[in-house]
Amino acid sequence: TKVNILLALAEKYNLESPLKARRYVQDAFAMANEIKYTEGIIKSADYLGSLYHNQKSYSQAINYYNQALSY
């Protein structure tokens, strides 16, 4: 799916451009929610949690981790 492609692109850019990676994951998260793709929602929410955790934005990280866990 396009969600998985966006997540793969985020993985590719994660080290060299975290902001670009985050945009890809946010797009994947939005798309997965729109089409109700549960696996994509979980993966992208978890990925966003990790990205925010690495940026020390802990409250946002917890928010996305909780969304991933709610499924």
**Mean pLDDT figure:** 96
Structural class of the helices, strands and pairings?
Answer: mainly alpha
What is the oligomeric state here?
single chain
Count helical runs: 4
Instruction: List low-pLDDT spans.
Output: none
The geometry reads as flat
Distance between the termini: 19 Å
Strand content: under 5%
Largest sheet data: none
Rounded Rg: 11 Å
- Helix fraction by DSSP (H/I, runs of at least 4): over 70%
- One letter per element, helices H and strands E, the order comes to HHHH
Number of strands: 0
Chain-wise SSE layout:
Blueprint: H1 2-13, H2 18-35, H3 38-54, H4 58-69
Helix pairs in contact: 1-2, 2-3, 3-4
Structure description:
The protein is mainly alpha-helical. Helices cover 83% and strands 0% of the residues. The chain has helices at residues 2-13, 18-35, 38-54, 58-69. The mean pLDDT is 96.
Label this structure with key terms:
71 residues, mainly alpha
Question: Would you summarize the structure shown here?
Answer:
The chain is mainly α and 71 residues long. The chain is built from 4 helices and no strands.
